[in-house]
Specification:
By secondary structure, this protein is mainly alpha-helical. Helices cover 88% and strands 0% of the residues. α2 runs antiparallel to α3.
């Protein structure tokens, strides 16, 4: 196995473990999945082209906008979280671990 494969595998294992044991991360992923489901449902209503008044359509479009904004915020927060976690792991070396 190449060094990259080992490193990537270790990273995946660490992130998987973190997802299982970190309540804040689990909640963020749950929020993201909830927003994705809600966004999909709302956009399906719009895509079906059902008879709705211009006011109703604007309301649904606003809902899609709000949901996608929340989803983007959650995604950005998760990316920042993973970047921070990854950076912290890169700073650690076997020598640092052995010294602790």
């Amino acid at each position: 196995m190449s060094v990259c494969s080992v490193s990537c595998s270790d990273e995946i294992d660490a992130l998987s473990d973190r997802l299982s044991n970190d309540p804040a991360l689990g909640a963020a992923v749950h929020d993201m999945l909830t927003e994705i489901s809600a966004l999909r449902s709302t956009s399906e209503i719009l895509a079906e082209g059902a008879q709705m008044s211009p006011e109703q359509r604007r309301r649904f479009e606003q809902i899609v906008f709000d949901q996608s904004s929340r989803l983007a915020d959650t995604g950005a927060a998760l990316a920042a979280y993973f970047d921070k976690t990854s950076e912290e792991r890169r700073r650690r070396t076997p020598q640092i671990d052995a010294e602790e």
